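Let's do one together. I've listed all components of the complex below, 600 residues spread over two lines.
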Amino acid sequence: MSETLLQLTGVHTHIGEYHILQGVDLTVPKDGITVLLGRNGAGKTTTLRTIMGLWHASRGSVSFNGSDITQAPTPDISCAGIAYVPESMGIFSDLTVRENLYLAARQGEIDEKRLEWIFGFFAALKKFWNQPAGTLSGGQKQMVAIARAIVEPRKLILIDEPTKGLAPAIIQGMIAAFRELKATETILLVEQNFNFVCSLGDTVAVMDGGRIVHSGMMSELAENRDRQHKLLGLSLDSHQ
Amino acid sequence: MLRTLLSGDLPRSRMLSATLLVVFIGLALAPFVVSGARSLNVAATICVFVVLVASYDLLLGYTGVVSFAHTMFYGIGAYGVGLALTGMGPSWTAIAVGTVGALLVSLVLALVIGLFSLRVRAIFYAMITLAVASAFAVLASQLSDFTGGEDGLTFKVPELLQPSFHLLEATIMGRAIDGKLITYYLLFFSALGLFLFMLRIVNSPFGRVLQAIRENDFRAEALGYRTVIYRTLANCLSALIATLAGVLMALWLRYVGPKTMLSFEIMTDILLIVVIGGMGTIYGALIGSALFILAQNYLQVLMGQTSAALSGVPFLANLFHPDRWLLWLGVLFVLSVYFFPTGIVGKLRAGTLAKVDRRP
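Okay, and this is what the predicted structure of the assembly comes out as:
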């Protein structure tokens, strides 16, 4: 097992009067993809938002790369090397594709080689480079959101349900992109589409009721259909 | 050259380009193509309002911050120069001292208001600015020994800017080259410079961050931007430019008073112009200001002529009576907001939505 990059220990998060995260313990190892699975309302998005400091944990700790970031402001967490692709794609629709990407390049410039590398995954971005991001299709917007997260090298990328509402053909393209990305980046991927992640993930954690109810290797969960059914209420067959 | 001058933000619509060109040429040649003090006053007011409205749009349209303190900063600029010229006599040093002093006061106030209140929710920020601006207006009226109270202050400007000063004996196109003309072009070129500066700001990386904050401040924070700092900077920048607009207006009018410089009516005018021109477009300030100031000054005259022409038709003659000009101005606003919800610039640009521009 490689070294730990992100560690959540007994994290509780309240949103108003609602107690969403109820003691989350999660470990994200360095390199590869860690998948966070769970039903709707299990607390997956809240976990990502708590890591990013958009909602602060009321109890417990979040440690990133050896530093405690539990109460750190969001910009500091971002500057520490965590990129976030929210569920709603999170693009700036009035800005062009180019401006969206430059906004995420904190050095003010994008390395040309890295840009070509990104265009290798998402060719549409090159085509619509100077077009307002709000005029793109859902899949293209998702590409902008992911490209923005990888426009500069990051230590960790949090991605929330990237396949939500996308056509199967686009999802296949995204699988290919993630397969290449995982060779160089560490990703914490929230998904409900088990088919999408079962071949991509290295490690997996399953959430239910604001807690992690299972964690281990993805290959083990992919082979154990009874456990899939028990944890996620599905079997791989029903999705094939 | 033009692209560089406009910071790469071209009008992107033929109709918009033509309209902007007409307004620009009209303002540039106003002293030579219109006659009478009123017409020149209208042109000068448009020049000042372009700066004032564009600086407000920097805050509202580009950053998404609703402030009611903009006229306060405008008033600070006007009173700064007015007080300095009254106290120190008509000299360029007095103008410089008044301007720098006003800019410093505005900067401190904008910084304090920004740091203390931009963390709170938008509605509270708007209320705080409203309270501060109202307090400032009351203060300007009450401190009559210092500010001239409700009557305001009338002051002299340096000789070069006085109407009695003649630079040349000869006339150009029938127009005397006097202090009034020099003051007009001081306003025109200052407004042009500030307009291009604001265009540069909104098209810079800083401007893009402001736009990102307007669209979604959480997302901007998740990219590593401290939104409170950016909002405060935008607030300060906007206040400083409004202060300069106040300085220009004071030099033109040679008078400062609470009604002319600090009234809430000016604030509502600014809001209306931003909406009519198009929020989040610096060009909108130019077109909106020109339309609004022209309507404000000539609608009554136009209605008088219409009413006279319809004198035989009782109901219509009454409907278009010049006394009802405010009613018609209101109707025009409602119609413009209905037909141009994204403002005139937004509507004109929508017709020629950016073509797919392939990256080279």
